Amino acid sequence: MPNFDKVAIIGVGLLGGSIGKALQERELAKEVIGIGRYKGKLSHAQSIGTVTEATTDLAEGVAGANVVVVCTPVETVADQVAQVLEHVGPDCLVTDVGSTKEAIIRDICEKCGPRASQFVGSHPLAGDHNTGPDFSRADLFEKRMVVITPSDQNELEPTVKIAEFWHALGARTILLQADEHDAALAVTSHLPHALATALALTTPQELLGLAATGWADTTRVAAADSTLWRQIFLANREQVLAALDHFNVQLTALRTAIATDDGDKLEELLFEGKKIRDALGN
């Protein structure tokens, strides 16, 4: 199990705060430094135990770190990584938690040249529609999958070390190429968010009193941060559009079966959907 003198976390929200709490609870790091733009928010994050220290000075915060985790919105990750690499030593590894990967890795390779080899992309498949450090918890990553997306510049050793970092927090890991990750997550994460939003938009507010658990469960993720999701959809635009097109095929098949009173086809579609959902388990 790895042990670090110093881990720096840029962006101490739900994910960053949970990483900080997990590192401390598992006694994996002597120092856990939170870095952000606003002193008040950082002070609050520190007061609830997400980090041991906090600073708005990125250079000061990452100096001497063994690992830096960038937990900012996907639109800013590449710039943050480029700044970090200006202030850390050659043995420091940098990773992120972004929900898209191909554009981030491409931008980092362009901005950072050979030093981009110190960055190994990560995406923990964990989180919540609630945001902010108040919702962080030390067990957020336990038994959850983290996708590791090494670039062509990464040697095996840094990739293994980043995987070990997540294992130490209780997670499982899988390696995917960045484009494979983005195609997969467009279907399993980004499409569900788009559909939840569409369903919420379709429902008149005056009918919300009749909305039961099915509506609430299906639309839960629509309550997530809209600015963050705008960035995710646009960063993974082509893959999201492909997923939406495939969904429209299935939706049209359902509509056609209902419109034509084709009960056999309708039941077939419902059964196939149930079978796929049942395969996931609870």
UniProtKB/TrEMBL annotation:
It comes from the Bacteria. GO terms for molecular function: NAD+ binding; prephenate dehydrogenase (NAD+) activity; prephenate dehydrogenase (NADP+) activity. One of its GO terms (biological process) is tyrosine biosynthetic process. SUPFAM superfamilies: 6-phosphogluconate dehydrogenase C-terminal domain-like, NAD(P)-binding Rossmann-fold domains. Residues 5-282 form the Prephenate/arogenate dehydrogenase domain. Pfam families: PDH_C, PDH_N. PROSITE patterns: PDH_ADH (PS51176). InterPro entries: 6-PGluconate_DH-like_C_sf, NAD(P)-bd_dom_sf, PDH_C, PDH_N, Preph/Arog_dehydrog, Prephen_DH. Keywords: Oxidoreductase. This is Prephenate dehydrogenase. It comes from Aeoliella mucimassa.
